[in-house]
Specification:
single chain, 2 domains, BirA Bifunctional Protein, domain 2, 8-stranded mixed sheet, 5-stranded antiparallel sheet, alpha+beta
Length: 247
Amino acid sequence: MNKFFLNKKIHFDTLNSTNETLVQISKKIKLQNGFYITADYQKSGKCQNNDRWDSNPKENLLISIYLNLKLNIENSFMLNQLASLAVLDTLKQFLNLKIEIKWPNDVYVDNKKISGILINNAIKGKIINSSVIGIGINVNQTIFNKKYIATSMKLLNKKDFELNEIEKMLMINIKKQSLTLMDEKISLLTNRYNDHLLGKKLDSIFILNKKRIYAKVIEVNQNGKIKLMFGDGDVNEFSQDEVKLLR
């Protein structure tokens, strides 16, 4: 088990992006599962949909983790579930609050974003050769760009947190969820993901065909498609490229 997950890291004061840096490192050096990098600040951090990740220096956890699980490309969404559940379980150790996953893989508390996840996969044929999972968790930052509806652990609990403690707990949970996936317990990941799905069985606002629509979130399947029920009772599944969840 220890050989499977190395759990070694490199720390940077400043870089452009933890994901970009780790991808470049992985091209030069053969890495093992669990190798990761952290940074105090990233100049060009991004999250889902290429939005900028707003983070002040030394106030938040900025981390990218290397995994080589040899997944079939059809199971790529399992990585989203793995990462979002690891973040959720980590936050549960520090916050006695309801924590939810906004499809596809943002983590929310009190309808505000507390964590974002960005995954870069290296694909060969039908196999994901390796993955770099970038995670940002808002920890001690209290002022955010008004463009973003964001919160942090400090805003929620009115106290400072040690970044090292959160980092260690996150890596424990990344390893735990990775082993769950390696044991082919895919349905377990999917069921837990849906148990914590933001807006489940509630009317939510989506962008579909450039129009705002209301639909009820039913579930997300193993391939990452979201199942929606419309006002007329019709149920359809959509990929991330087809529909965007606003709130």
